[in-house]
Specification:
- The complex is a heterodimer.
- Chain A is mostly beta strands.
- Chain A contains no helices and 11 strands.
- In chain A, the strands form 2 sheets. In chain A, strands 2, 4, 5, 6, 9, 10 and 11 form a 7-stranded mixed sheet that branches. A 4-stranded antiparallel sheet of chain A has the order 1-3-8-7, with no helix packed on it.
- Chain A starts with a strand and ends with a strand.
- By secondary structure, chain B is mainly β.
- In chain B, strands 2, 4, 5, 9, 10 and 11 form a 6-stranded mixed sheet that branches.
- In chain B, strand 7 and strand 8 form a beta hairpin.
- The chains are: A mainly beta, B mainly beta.
């Protein structure tokens, strides 16, 4: 069964460092998302991406965040200068169509120290 | 006030029991999603529904659009059903707004 894959599964980084979280969505999907879940809290929307551009972003997704689909298969989330409060589980998701179910990756646990 | 509310927050059951998890939402939706999150953290989609009822194995999801309410039922619960069950509202801008989840533990 096709799946969304995320790498790495766990990343530890020092405050102020740049991190790139990688995702390979399901191959025929057109809509891509990043969500995050701070430990003990609910999952929050970060950004949606369609047709090679951001279609919506949340207040969390400030200038420190960016997304890219560099080569038609990968979908990356970059955090330019990490803060302690960026520590969370980051989930990538993809959908074939806006009206179909979303498929989620297993998540990347980011720990900023 | 949260846009998506779930109840209960925690639920324990004996194997074989019938389980109901409730979800109320205050936003306009294109669809309501039920998802399952296991201890490792991964999220799996269970149902997406915009009206009526859907069934998959021992899982049943219902939605009442007028009352902005959905329920997830598990029949003949089993310890392997232990997980966090999350309701999420799919809004017209196509993002999902998540509820806080219901932690279910089923004991043998």
């Amino acid at each position: 069964e096709p799946e969304v894959t995320q790498t790495p599964s766990h990343q530890v980084t020092q405050m102020g460092q740049e991190v790139i979280l990688r995702c390979v969505p399901i191959s025929n999907h057109l809509y891509f998302y990043w969500y995050r879940q701070i430990l003990g809290q609910k999952v929050e929307f970060l950004v949606s991406f369609y047709n090679n551009e951001i279609s919506e972003k949340s207040e969390i997704f400030d200038d420190q965040f960016s997304v890219e689909r560099p080569d038609g298969s990968n979908f990356t989330l970059k955090i330019r200068s990490t803060k302690l409060e960026d520590s969370a589980m980051y989930f990538c998701a993809s959908r074939n169509d806006r009206n179909t179910e979303a498929f989620f990756g297993q998540g990347t646990r980011l720990t900023v120290v | 006030k949260n846009e998506v509310e779930q109840s209960p927050q925690n639920l324990t059951a004996q194997e074989g029991e019938f389980i109901t998890i409730n979800c109320s939402y205050s936003v306009g939706i294109s669809a309501l999603h039920w998802l399952q999150q296991h201890p490792g953290g991964g999220i799996v989609s269970l149902f997406m529904l915009s009206s009526g009822k859907k069934k998959h194995g021992r899982l049943i999801a219902t939605i009442n659009i007028q009352e902005k309410h959905s329920s997830l039922h598990i029949t003949a619960s089993h310890p392997r059903d232990s997980a966090v069950y999350i309701c999420a509202a799919g809004v017209n801008t196509d993002k999902l707004i998540f509820g806080t989840g219901t932690r279910l533990q089923v004991f043998p």
